[in-house]
Amino acid sequence: MKIIVIGGSIATHSIVQTLLRYGRDLNITIISEESDIFYSKCLLTYLLGKEIEEKELFFGSVGQLNGRVKLYSNTKAIAIDGQNKKVICDNGLSFDYDRLVIATGADPIKPSYCKEENRVFTVRYKNDIAKIEKHLKNRAVVIGGGYVGLKTAFSLVRRNIDTTVIISSQYPLSVTADEETGKTIEKELNQMGIKTITRCDVREIAPKNDNIKICLTSGDEISADLCIVGKGVKPRTELLSNSSVSVNVGIPVNQYLQTSDPDIFAIGDCAETYDIVREDNYLNAIWPNAVEQAYYAALNILGRNVSYAGSVLMNSIKTDQFHLITAGILKGDGVTLYEHRNSSKNQYRKIALKNGRLVGLAFFNNPEDAGFYVNLVKKGGMFVDKPLEFLEKADIRSVYYRPFR
Amino acid sequence: MKTIIIQPERCVGCMQCRFNCAVAHSKAKNILSIFETPLSKPRIHIALSSEKEPFPNKCRHCNPAPCENACITKAIYRDEATDAALINPDRCINCGMCAMACPFGVVRYHTYLHGRLAAHKCDQCILRIKEGEKPACVEACKVGALFFDDINKFMKEREGQRVANLVYLGIREKQEPKGNSYEALKKYEKDLLVLRRR
Predict the structure, then answer these.
(1) Percent of chain A beyond pLDDT 90?
(2) What average pLDDT does the segment A190-216 reach?
(3) Fewest beta carbons within 10 Å, which of A13, A133, A272, B70?
(4) DSSP code per residue over A136-200
């Protein structure tokens, strides 16, 4: 069977590994537009903080895949012919396939005010770090209070760089965390020496002498060496624009990870999978989901019909001072929060219930039991009778399972 | 392939396995290691079940392992020879993703190499096994809650035991009948479980 995988990151790596492990007589080809493949994008902020070296970014190589995989790097797939089962590339090559896997990932969002190309960066690809290093001296501004923004800020402050984080909502991590957690994180950030500006957006970024000037909507101006944008990612779907595969924001897939064309699979950051918590297709662009989807997609390519239950947005942020784990949703209509605190140890746990169903959690400084609760959220239909006892003692008897889908 | 097998109903919560685990993973490998810095931490935990009974909670070395899938540096890898999920502390950057992914809550963060925090969990004592010894926690367990055996063989034996018990109970039920035999058998089986705990 001829299998073509487009992409060069973790989803590709794990789907190829799973295919080689379970399948036989496979002809696998990887097409990647980057020259370096199989490096961890999540580690780029750590590279910026000089916690790791550049060679530690790489988690695997094609050589490890037993020579059974052909790699075409620096090759960009530009079109897919679904009827003749062909992938056409920009350097004139074209490949036939029996099954096609799209793992193109996502690009960072650059808002409209980022016109100054030379001093406004995102942290997504390996060469971004080199560009940042070239201009970085002693003052930096991070726009966006999500996980990438905060991790970038931690890395910068580790290098004793004066860092300011501009957050458009009221508190950091506003997408995933509740208000109290966000405020706690903001306090921790300020203690670490990171300045935060909340409820404020950027109006314009203009060059000024050797550095840049950032004009805020509140009227203030900040000057800095450079500016790093962490405003989330958008899936790369331009490859499918002229094909028969349907595309929303991402590429919607069914429970077998198939797109609207049953021979084309989509996994990783570009795929819109079923979200267990939101009960709808949603983009959950995180590493563990990509690996899990790759595993299920590989089994489905080999004809085993294993259904993927769905993804949940979850994340962990850890510094020397605190450790926060969030999963699912903590805000929205009909969501009730229950909490248990241990103020002497500066810990708390929160769970969110929607109509009695466990939909989200936030664990602050409490990593021991977090995985247990996260996996209950991932199960989907967990209904909690006595939430406070459940939180305090992890008493599984107060939880029961009911299919909800 | 031999693995560590847990019989939770036999655990009395004496924590000997924890002590022996910490000693076995220390530098001195004897009791004087309690004076070491950094102090060697145990990789097995005693948790309480919903019935408030203690049981040894340790890494199950799942395959595919959620922690291995969640690890953004691939510091968690699988040892082909022993099929154990292991942590390479050189690569670990202490991001906390494995604790988030582990459904059993066995990953902790301790300083044990290079003077920085890293993920810390059971390594199935691969070094001891290579030298032909039993894992440290198994060696310490005096009540048979932990032992080191082939899982398929063990489950077969255990199922055989259960069938033998049921046959015995069935014969007894036939000799001294007490109403509905199926329910009586179920009750006997429950009693046996309680007995086995003692």
Answers:
(1) 68
(2) 89
(3) A133
(4) -SSEEEEE--SHHHHHHHHHHHHTT-EEEEE-SSSSTTTTTS-HHHHHHHHHHHHHHT-EEE-S-
Put simply, the answer to whether A46 touches B93 (Cβ < 8 Å) is yes
Residue A356 has pLDDT above 80, yes or no: yes
Angle of CA points A44, A58, B104, to nearest 5°: 85
Q: What is the mean pLDDT of residues A230-235?
A: 92
Q: What is the pTM of this model?
A: 0.91
8 Å CB contact of A59 and B105? no
Summarised one tens digit per residue, pLDDT across range B182-192 is: 777 777 777 77
Q: Alpha-carbon distance B118 to B107, whole Å? A: 10
pLDDT score of B180: 66
CB of A140 closer than 8 Å to CB of A163:
yes
* Residue contact A325–B96, C-beta within 8 A: yes
Average pLDDT over residues A252-264: 94
User: Which is nearest to A358 in space by CA: A314, A400, A308, A310?
Assistant: A400
- In this predicted model, what pLDDT tens digit does every residue of A4-18 receive, in sequence order? 999 999 999 999 999
Q: Which residues contact A48 (CB under 8 A, 6 or more apart)?
A: A123, A129, A132, A152, A155, A156
Type of residue found at A81 = D
**Which residues, at least 6 apart from B167, have a Cβ–Cβ distance to it below 8 Å?**
none
Alpha-carbon distance of A341 to B57, in angstroms, equals 24
- Pick from A364, A365, A356, A361: nearest CA to A386: A356
Contact B91 A374 (CB under 8 A): no
Phi, psi of B175 (to 5 degrees): -75, -45
Percent of chain B with pLDDT over 90: 56
CA distance A102 to chain B (A): 19
Residue B181 clears pLDDT 70, i.e. is over it: no
For chain B, state the CA radius of gyration: 20
Mutation to test the A interface, candidates B100, B110, B114, most A Cβ within 10 Å: B100
> What mean pLDDT do residues A30-47 have?
92
Are residues A231 and A108 in contact, defined by beta-carbon separation less than 8 angstroms? yes
Q: What are the distances in angstroms from CA A255 to CA A16, A19, A102?
A: 20, 19, 16
Residues of B near A (Cβ–Cβ under 8 Å) read 50, 64, 66, 69-70, 72-74, 91, 93-97, 99-105, 107-109, 117
pLDDT tens-digit series, residues B40-90: 999 999 998 877 889 999 999 998 899 999 999 999 999 988 889 999 999
CA dihedral in degrees (B65, B67, B73, B76; nearest 10)? -60
Q: B36 to each of B20, B40, B110, how far by Cα in Å?
A: 15, 8, 14
- Model confidence at A65: pLDDT above 80: no
